[in-house]
């Protein structure tokens, strides 16, 4: 019981130190508690006024399984809502434009396990344009590009590119309409 308490306090202290480091590196952005980032912080690029809310998990690569590569770039004035998971590991990573509105529970993957060789991974860059909205619990598969001003409705699973000014939804996500 005491050992569990010591581990808990150590985790809290490490989280506090890490948040201080993030705030120093990105003084114009906002960070809530319980943000988990794996990999080198040098692989993270945030635009000004970006808000990362609680319980977000980012994997920035820098490990052997992802060829020691990874990159996550989030443009200015973006919001990453609670419970978001972004795997930006591997060559290419994830690049997100400005004014991105990310609902809670969104999952974005630039890598996946190879079904034919389970010890290998497949890496494909994910690109998300400016002014994109992903509603709650959307899943973005590796290699997807989402155009500017696009919207993906709650629970959508995106496994192919989405053009600009389009609304997609469903499993898998399908075209619904064009917006101005």
Q: What is the β-strand count?
A: 21
**Which range best describes the helical content: under 10%, 10-25%, 25-40%, 40-55%, 55-70% or over 70%?**
10-25%
Number of domains: 1
CATH-defined superfamily:
Hexapeptide repeat proteins
Please name the CATH architecture.
Answer: 3 Solenoid
Helical element count?
A: 1
Mind telling me the CATH class?
A: Mainly Beta
Q: How does the overall form come out from the CA principal axes?
A: globular
Radius of gyration based on Cα positions: 17 Å
Question: Helix-strand pattern, N to C?
Answer: HEEEEEEEEEEEEEEEEEEEEE
Reconstruct the topology from this structure:
Layout lengths: L1 H24 L4 E2 L4 E3 L5 E3 L4 E2 L4 E3 L12 E3 L4 E2 L4 E3 L6 E3 L4 E2 L4 E3 L1 E4 L2 E7 L2 E3 L4 E2 L4 E2 L4 E2 L4 E2 L4 E2 L7 E4 L4 E5 L2
Parallel strand pairs: 1-4, 2-5, 3-6, 4-7, 5-8, 6-9, 7-10, 8-11, 9-14, 10-15, 11-16, 14-17, 15-18, 16-19, 18-20
Antiparallel strand pairs: 12-13, 20-21
Structure notes:
With 180 residues, this protein is mainly beta. It has one domain: UDP N-Acetylglucosamine Acyltransferase, domain 1 (3 Solenoid). It has 1 helix and 21 strands. The protein has one helix spanning 2-25; strands at residues 30-31, 36-38, 44-46, 51-52, 57-59, 72-74, 79-80, 85-87, 94-96, 101-102, 107-109, 111-114, 117-123, 126-128, 133-134, 139-140, 145-146, 151-152, 157-158, 166-169, 174-178. The relative contact order is 0.10.
């Amino acid at each position: 019981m005491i050992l569990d308490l010591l581990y808990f306090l150590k985790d809290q202290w490490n989280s506090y130190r890490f948040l201080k480091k993030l705030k120093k590196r990105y003084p114009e952005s906002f960070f809530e508690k319980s943000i988990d980032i794996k990999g080198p912080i040098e692989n993270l690029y945030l635009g000004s006024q970006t808000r990362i809310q609680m319980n977000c998990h980012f994997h920035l690569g820098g490990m052997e399984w992802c060829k020691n590569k990874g990159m996550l770039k989030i443009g200015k004035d973006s919001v990453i809502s609670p419970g978001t998971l972004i795997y930006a590991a591997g060559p290419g990573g994830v690049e997100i434009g400005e004014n991105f509105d990310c609902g809670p529970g969104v999952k974005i993957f630039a890598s996946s396990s190879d079904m034919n060789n389970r010890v290998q991974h497949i890496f494909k860059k994910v690109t998300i344009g400016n002014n994109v909205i992903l509603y709650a619990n959307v899943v973005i598969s590796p290699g997807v590009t989402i155009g500017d001003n696009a919207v993906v409705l709650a629970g959508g699973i995106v496994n192919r590119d989405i053009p600009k000014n389009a609304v997609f939804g469903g499993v898998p996500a399908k075209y619904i309409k064009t917006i101005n």
